[in-house]
Amino acid sequence: MDVFAEFLARIDDPFHRERTEKILVWITEKYPNLKKEIKWNQPMFTDHGTYIIGFSVSKKHLAVAPESVTITHVEDDIVKAGYEYTKEIIRIPWKSPVDYTLLEKMIDFNIKDKANCTTLWRK
């Protein structure tokens, strides 16, 4: 978690910091082949140089950014989880439970769908 240590240290709210760290650790343990990176001051995971998933912290929620194609792919699951979302991000309110099954679906989809992708973002 050394890559994310400085990012986590800047999260003032202890609950927000702990929850964010728990998610990042979960991904690191479940997907040990993904590379941990900080880009644009945000933690993200990549696979062979292509973006898989990233996060940002706000006062009211943790934002998850898996790319719009992925959001469309799991849209029904996002609705079932009760999360608000836009074309580019999913908002997990700090007071709501984290749907790890949804995170797993998004990460698995991106790893498979971007297996032959040679750029950071989809074209």
UniProtKB/TrEMBL annotation:
Top-level taxon? Bacteria
Q: Start and end of every YdhG-like domain?
A: 16-111
Cross-referenced SUPFAM superfamilies, in alphabetical order? YdhG-like
Q: Which InterPro entries match?
A: YdhG-like
Instruction: Supply the Pfam families for this chain.
Output: DUF1801
In its UniProt entry, what is this protein called? YdhG-like domain-containing protein
